[in-house]
Amino acid sequence: MTDSNLKRIYDKVMAGERLSFEDGMTLFNSNDVLTIGEMAHHIRVQKNGLKTFYTLNQHINPTNICRNDCLFCAFYRKDGQEGAYRMSLETVRQKVLERIEEPITEIHIVGGLDDGLPYEYYIDVLRVVKEVRPNVNIKAYTAVEIAYLAERSGKSWAAVLDDLLEAGLNAMPGGGAEVFSERVKRKLFMDKLSADEWIEIHKIAHSKGIRTNATMLYGHIEKDEEKVDHLIRLRKAQDESGGFLTFLPLLFHPENTRMARLPMATGVEDLKHIAISRLLLDNFDHIKAYWVMLGKDVAQIALSFGADDIDGSVVEERIYHMAGARSSQMMTRSQLKKLISECGFVPVERNALYQSVNTETEIIDQV
Q1: Closest CA relative to residue 298, chosen from 265, 346, 322, 337
Q2: pLDDT band with cut points at 50, 70 and 90 for residue 212
Q3: What pTM did the predictor assign?
Q4: How is residue 285 annotated by DSSP?
């Protein structure tokens, strides 16, 4: 331990005590990343042993046309702009059919807020996926999209979630949270939900049995105290509803955005965010190191810094690659298992709900 300020936090972690906001600030202010990682790894092993989860999944982004104007987004286009697209339901069907021979257990669906598509389209996308793959887990639509669909339809958030459940929704991704800071929201994503609204939609989903993920976007203009506040608020929401599955610290890729002047966070900063997330979010079972975002090398190291999940095969990823991600867009099961096992961890294939599956995709136990 090179930072004596961490001694008190180290003792609390080893005693199983909850860390405070002040502890979070001490962690972010410390350069002793190895000790922070050691503490996070201790919690990771307590919760999941050496298990490291991955999934065979497919990403589908039905439209990149969006009425919002977020400064950090390289994915969205305005209707008619070069590069803008919207998939027909038949194209969605073909996307699923393209991979029908692969034992995919999760299909991840997010897109833009496209005023050119009716409310029913977003519901029908799920129905089409379930028609082609009736046994797949659909993880679809961020809280931002849920609020948008409620506005378009005149329905409540709860009623929209009911419609999606009926169409086949199994879980929700955690995007759209960005950072729970009104200061950052005003500067970067004025048209998106407030922190309270994002949390409330997830809590409504949890009340209906829909498990969800949570995220935090870092590496732009956010301050350390805003990140700690974000994590503490997520922890409080999890205390209240218990419906969050995993947390993903999301690295901001500035390339091809209007914030391209900003330097990208370093690998050390990535590891620090993952480790601090593991330490503060004591009531979250899983912390994900998203290999598409981090790159395979950093994702491997992250498994010793608190992360116990690397996401999955992905197949086709648009959002981070349109922002300049250099990683490949797909890994096979054998590549995912090798990435995990060569670091000394035990690969566990899962579905979207963290149920483990065997190579024939039959659910065999609840992890």
Answers
A1: 265
A2: very high
A3: 0.89
A4: S
